[in-house]
Amino acid sequence: MLTALGGNCALKITNGGWAMSNRERCLSLIKSFSEEQLAAITRMLESVAVLTAEADDDAFCRRLYRDYQNDDRGEPARRRLLERENYA
Questions:
Q1: What is the pTM of this model?
Q2: 19-28, pLDDT tens digit by residue?
Q3: Contact between residue 29 and residue 38 where contact means Cβ atoms under 8 Å apart
Q4: Is the CB of residue 25 less than 8 Å from the CB of residue 32?
């Protein structure tokens, strides 16, 4: 299998022929949908984009918390925070 890159297009040679890139396949499918179908697909894609952004944000927050837990410089402040949580 050989991959050729050019512009926004990535084509793969498989079994002696050219295969469409994912972008080209998506554009080909989009042309066959009605406006109502496109509206539904747009809403789905927007939902996926929001979920992806939220997942990235959650991962960032987990990294920050993990780094905070592993940081020895903040031990007295962390101890006070944990003591406050016991009273909440």
A1: 0.46
A2: 889 999 989 9
A3: no
A4: no
Cβ neighbours for 78, distance < 8 A, ≥ 6 positions apart: 68, 69
By C-alpha distance, which of 4, 23, 6 is closest to 14? 4
For residues 27 and 42, membership in a common domain is answered with: no
Task: In whole angstroms, give the CA distance from residue 82 to residue 88.
Answer: 10
Compute the distance between CA of residue 63 and CA of residue 79 in angstroms, rounded to an integer.
20
Helical H segments across the chain, by residue range? 22-31, 35-70, 75-87
Given a contact cutoff of 8 angstroms between Cβ atoms, the answer to whether 59 and 49 are in contact is: no
> What sign does the CA torsion over 37, 43, 45, 51 have?
negative
Q: Domain range holding 69?
A: 34-88
Q: Are 58 and 26 found together in one domain?
A: no
How many domains, the chain? 2
d(CA 28, CA 42): 16
